[in-house]
Amino acid sequence: MCLNTVIVFCIKTNTLGGNLMFKKFCLFFIFIVMFSFNSYACTLPSSAEQGAMLHAHTWTFNSVKENIPAIAAAGFNSVQVSPVQKTKASTPWWILYQPCNLHIGNHLGTYDEFKSMCATADSYGVKIIVDAVLNHVGDNGTTGNWANELDPALKITSYFHNNCSITSYKDRWQLTQDNLLGLPDWNTQSSIVQNLHINFLNECIDAGADGFRFDAAKHIETSGGEDGSWAGNYWGNVLGNLHNKSNLYNFGEVLPDTADNDEQYMTYFDITAHDYGGTIRSAVRNSNVTNIANIWHGNHTISPSKALAYMENHDDYESNQDNSTSLTAWQRKMGYSIIAARAALTPNFLDIPTDDIWKDTDIAVINNFHNAMVGQEEYLRYPRNETLLVDRGTIGTAIINLGGQYNLDSTTNLASGTYTGNAGTFTVSNGRITGTIAAGSVIAIYNGSTYGVGTSSDTVTTTVKIHYAVEDGNSMTLRGSVSPLSWTSGQAMTQTDGNYWTWTTTSIPSGQSFEFKGLINCSTWETTCNHTGTGGQTITVEGTF
Fold first, then answer.
1. Which overall architecture, per CATH, does domain 378-457 show?
2. 515 assigned to active site
3. Residues 445, 470 contacting (CB under 8 angstroms)
4. Which of 131, 185, 215, 391 is an active site residue?
5. What's the mean pLDDT in 397-417?
6. Spatial separation of the C-alpha atoms in residues 235 and 220, rounded to whole Å
């Protein structure tokens, strides 16, 4: 792990020449501080594709700049910034995806602030990835009509397809030639439009950008695949004429559907593994990691080496898709850790306004593991439903434990030896790894040590109380979705004063959501919908039978 702690102080002497000594002393320590901060860069992969990406959704350029030291310290080697083009307003958030020109500068910051942010990021080895919106422009509130605020130089009818709005997302022609959500669709077959887009992207690159997320990429036609007579050379021409093109990391938003043409887009860049986010959300909600191996994209899988993966993106969160906003901070970091532990995937972590979990120690632990394991193959193991082991070659193993404390005894490829650190001691001998895994923990094992937050802070008490008057001679049991609860067998509850039935455990991790129901005599279920609770809390409900 890369943990740098620096104390800066200056002592002014009263001896002759003290002012000069004071200045030299301060300059010496300032140099040490700068060297120490910049040493983060040596631990980060030089390629954004091989590293970990923080999605700084709606952050200002200055906020990104101010946080670059902490971002690098957390093991992120790239930052996805929100769209940089002019908009017709500053709110709501989605207005950023209705651009009104092809230049840098909007309510998130000016051109100069963008350039300064990029320069600071570069000094720490952090790449800036720009969310480029090039499929469409902002409208004026009516379908297919450009915003009044659109740059006058772009108000030329031939620059746009001037068709209807998309009505079927399974029709490839509509998908690429009609207006997405009624927004005026660029005529991306036009060489004039292509050159306008090239100039904008090169403006970003010359100011310090290191790559792009292409918003709504699947709505811009390709040169083949599922694209017919309307196919064009947009992607080949645009990407082929970018400055510093061999050093850029680009990926496209290609949401899965019948007409997504994903195989063709993967010849240009990585694509968003959007369905995999649903797989990960299901894993953390149900405390079951056994289905996380395949990167599903619609009805087929894609290679991890062509996938940028996230547990949720800004659309999921802002639109509460799949009830994304119900995810706890613990679930979000555990889901991300599953992704970041794996080989070839580029992990992307969304920062949301309600927490700064990207600064959590567990995030740094898994990011540093991810960065140290570049080039190592993966071997996935599931010693139980709640616990994932990711062997990386023979040099490292990550453990993501969605359940309670667990005494591990599993096969492994990790080299034999004893690994000891703040996440405990693990022993590898004859191809087996043994040790105690803390509840709800992220552990990285490599370089002869173990990394994590340890065990003591993970032990929390979860209490469920059901208020119901059960007749004498009867009992109540509890079933639920998270170990040690299950839906197939009951846990005994204890009757306390006031007709309360109580069950307590220290095996559910703090922050883990779960569902439960009471049963009388282990046979008569409550008639209400499942109750919900969170690990580490006391949950009191009224029983309904």
1. Sandwich (2.60)
2. no
3. no
4. 215
5. 96
6. 8
